[in-house]
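PROTOCOL LOG
Step 1. Enter all chains and additional molecules of the complex.
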Amino acid sequence: MNSIDSDRTSDNTYDAIVAGAGVIGLAIAWELNSQGASVLVVDRDRPGAGTTSVAAGMLAPTGELDFGEPALLEMNTISAGMYPEFVASVERVCGGMLGYQRVGGLHVALDRDEAAELRRVHDLQIESGLRADWLGPGAARELEQGVSPTLTGAVLIEDDGAIDPRVLTAGLLEALEKESVEVRVGTEVTAVRHRHGQVDAVEFKNGDRINTRAFVAAVGAESGRAEWIPDEARPPVRPVKGQIIELKGNPAEPICQRILASERVYLVPRRDGRLIVGATVEERGFDSEVTAGGLHELLREAYRLLPDVSELAFLNAVAGLRPGTPDNLPVVGPTSIDGFFLATGHYRNGILLAPITARAIADVVSGGEICGPMSAASPARFDPARTGASR
Amino acid sequence: MKIELNGEKRQVEDGATVDRIVELSGADPASRGLAVAVAGEVVPRSLWPKTVLRDEDEVEVVTAIQGGAGEWQLGDRQWNSRLIAGSGGFRSLGAMSEALEASGTEIITVALRRLDPAAQGSVMEVVERLGLFVLPNTAGCYTARDAVKTARLAREAFGTDWVKLEVIGDDRTLLPDAVELLRAAEELVGDGFTVLPYTNDDPILAARLEATGCVAVMPLGSPIGSGAGIRNPYNISIIVEKAEVPIILDAGIGTASDAALAMELGCDGVLLASAISRAKNPALMAQAMKSAVEAGRGAFEAGRIPKKLYAEASTPDDGLPSLG
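Step 2. Run joint prediction.
Step 3. Record the structure below.
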């Protein structure tokens, strides 16, 4: 351990330390910095190496809507509304464009059974006050000419959008650098020290010890097992494996204009001609192996939806771990240790929920409270002492 | 003298036997599911009248299974609930936990292919917390070899020799491959497994599976996840009529009346997953399924009236009604 003497020096003290340089952690640092706080970001790997690197980057509150999740819908919708300004604020500093686009989504039913399911979800979208239009086969194929001619119906969601999480990560990194916010890579947290129930320092594997009164754990699925998270602050987060495939097409002749989705697969077009095919949902613990069965399933369903995919070049296939929670809501906010904050558990919606999460964490770090829909993400809901629920 | 009965101090006469204590406990001595332990040692029923208690003895009288009317046997165990739940398709673990509790199920089937039993904080944690019996299945297997291998892995992973045997013939219909299924069943029974095969609604095949030594036969109502109900109730009736082992309707149930119908046809239980997990409100549907299974079984045991073409007044008009 290093010397305690250096503790009080000003360059060894930050208002906040954020562990995890994925989109969530970087967005939090961005927001904290813009509120005038001194921030250090650390990551055991390189930035965006975790779930961020395998996320498709759909910003789709309507397309992702499911039954029984009104609180999630509210967060997703508000965060989607924050995206244009969030992206613009980063672009103003980093100087590049992040490629955020409200491209829209077309959800397609390929047979009678799928049409019945799609109708059911469409009814829910309408009941929830969202914009979603039912299209017959002819109208749907006019919008997306490559879609399988066997389709029986589709729902057009004009409000859904997409962003490439890797481009967003690079933009955030550059903007943070220009704002002189340090992002330390290959830096692993070993302990978060607290005295009298208040965080006072963070220790690292390389022996460093840095003072702070606010620590934010934005480490995705790792938050369920990282040893340096004290038991009383540990969220019930589990890894939910997802495999995705990246294909390469010709940017001059995009294979589709919008996000295309069927019941079993989604396709997200990128401006550079790439097409993201996702994603499996597997309860396999911390296994992140790419499997033949997973790829087969994705490609088979992609081919059923958009036969032209067979002409695209194969770029790569990766598997990542979504941070899942028992109720599919994220875990964002203070814990029972003063100054120890969680920003994890975003499951399928991490990229989408980055702006609202960053705002909520910045608010609590500066002494405020989380109000509005993000209060449903409070870590306290899993605290058995307060809710009687078992972990 | 003083003893402790189920953790409570009680005064009893000197020389009291276990018989007497059972009477004091308020339990029905004739109930099959009753067990007595004195100082941590189980006392066999035959020794109850002869076992005299000593001062300060700690006695536990436990009702192993509630009631008597509802219980049924599957494999070497007694069960109360006739509803077996699947673990797939739930939107969240929280929704799954609520629904399983509402269903009253005691058995849950899980796919080894889709779930790592060692993974923490996952489906298995919910299963453990609710104290459910895990019935591993071989979902996703297309050959006998694959199914047998998966069953052996499941035996290791879950520490049980029970297996719900699925050998699928085609991924569009998910219908069983009868030939591969029978081969796998023979091999697994020979290997000491407690085998519950998911099969077509074919009475001949059901009889063949029973003959290989399967402890139950699980015919489908309609394809997995279709919610199309029981497409051939006549075949299910024939299977039930001929079977000596429990028949569990597996797959196809879409709503409560489907489950009730299965039970009215004489099935010993139903297995369902999507009907609950994909309902708009899974916990409410689970509660409805529980009621339906109980209602259907009740109707089966009560004995329905025959269907007739013409009316028959419930109070005959020739002769006097007996007013009571």
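Step 4. Note key features.
The CA atoms of residues 23 and 169 of chain A lie 6 Å apart.
The helical segments of chain A are 23-34, 70-94, 112-127, 137-143, 165-178, 292-305, 354-365, 384-387.
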